[in-house]
Amino acid sequence: MNKDKIKIENVDLYYGEFQALKNVNMRIKENEITAFIGPSGCGKSTLLKSLNRMNDLIEGVKITGKILLDDVDIYKDMDPSILRKRVGMVFQKPNPFPMSIYENVAYGPKTHGVKSKSRLDEIVEQSLRSAAMWDEVKDRLKKSALGLSGGQQQRLCIARAFSVNPEVILLDEPTSALDPISTMKIEDLLAEIRKNYTIIIVTHNMQQATRISDKTGFFLQGEVVEFDETDKLFSMPKNKKTEDYITGRFG
Amino acid sequence: MEAFKTEGNLKKRKIISIVLKTAVWFCGILTVGILVYILLFILVRGIPNINMEFLFGEYNSETLSALSSIVATIEMIAISLVIAVPIGVFCAIYLTEYAKRGSRAVKIIRLAVDTLAGIPSIVYGLFGMILFVNILGFRASILSGVCTISIMILPVIISTSEEAIKSVPDMYREGSLGLGATRLRTVFKIVLPAAMPGILSGVILAIGRIVGETAALIFTSGTNVMKNPTLNLHSSQRTLAIHMYMLASEGLPHSKDMAFATGAILIVIVFLVNFAAEKLANRIGRQ
Description:
heterodimer; A: alpha/beta; Rossmann fold; 10 helices; 27% strand; globular; B: 287 residues; mainly alpha; MetI-like fold; 11 helices; 0% strand
């Protein structure tokens, strides 16, 4: 049995007056892929962004309850910079920096104090290899990352997330802007890396959740309606709303 | 529902489009034409009067040499930019990255910037004369001119930098912060480089203002002209624009011609500076 990597306890989150998350409780296991599904605006991305405090950037956000990473309260007892090093994130739209492929991957380790050129070279190669794109780009590391295709850009962003050696990787609909082949590559990649990382993915695509995740959480209007093994949730949902959603009756 | 009368409609649209196209072309040609006319007018009248004495000689009533004015103009550009660009860019960073949206401080700063941008330059001249020349005792000098003109170009730099920084997509910031970078690192390593071309275009505008400024400088750096170029900031020395203005209003037989010669040099300098800045912006943009 894997241990609990992240514990979410009684979390309420408000954007100003609007309550986006209602009493969320969840335990995320180490080395598993957890998927969050649900219709737009259900709070799944909001919860994801709470896990590395990216919500702090939005004005007027208030959060109560506790989120624990290895039993440490990330809102009370952890510096956001350290937290985000340990909990990396890949965004919906590929967002490589407007610099070279090499610099994109080297940015993270440089941020955390790695200076030696040879060490950086090593990290860049390792990260790109883990993202299964080293062979594609090794001859054009000095070229701008913006010249890559959308799918390559997204894998570069995953490589960039690897570069600071995180423990958890959050992915916010990472394939929604990509074509099916790029999507498949990224799904294969996630299956490959799950043994080393704890992965949480928000997705609109239920097939994707069934294909890759161990656990799935179904969100509706800020509440977690059901959270269970992916197989169970999709084959015998306990809740009527979950059933309606996964059978395509709404959402 | 009435059916469309496609053909009549089409004919009418074609006529309108021809008329509009002609108008657009006319305006375009007119603009370029005026520019070309002005350039030719000044260059044709100016260039034949440029001679070695005028460019590199000592100033006297014979040569009316522009050399010390050229040097003073470049000094003025360089030092004013060194003062105003950091202040302006930092101010823009504060406004866009740190201040809370719509906070009182932001409103006040923005009001100040807009007001400063709208003040006629002669008012800056008077202000500079009172503050720098008299109260601070810098006397009529390049230093007084530099101080005055730095304040003058500040609003241009702030507002163009602000726009440039704002146009950097938020997803770059998120990407950087998501890796655990601090706000400061994100601003300096990610946001500023991405905003650099926009900031540079503000710098070019500012250079244009410095090069073309007369009113504010007549009161602060003065209309005096040194025999030989000087780097002494405490000396009073006119810039090229003032040199041109003074020559044009002087009664010497060849001073009008030399005014055009000065104008030609001014144009060349502006071209060179813009060209260099554009090259620089492209280079940064490509990285």
